[in-house]
Amino acid sequence: MSETPPLPSYGELLSLAGELRSELAQVRAELTAGRGEIAELKAESAGLRAENAELRRRLGMNSKNSSKPPSSDNLAKTTPLRKPSGRGPST
Questions:
Q1: pTM across the whole model
Q2: For FRET with 31, which of 13, 81, 82, 83 sits at 20 to 30 Å CA-CA?
């Protein structure tokens, strides 16, 4: 048969309870700090989302949907209709 370990003394139990209280206080402080950090990150994220939406809106503007002049439109490069023949320029 296995022997059961001896029960802790009253002093040992008090010491353990003190350690647990201290550890609990530390965990609570870390939790409070973490919650504050989460709130800051949420606020920053909301600001960045708003900025992103504004930049996307501006990126979609051209002379047809804003007061910009047509010369400010970004003209897309067109692909040539002819394929190069592979021959050099005539001399």
A1: 0.56
A2: 13
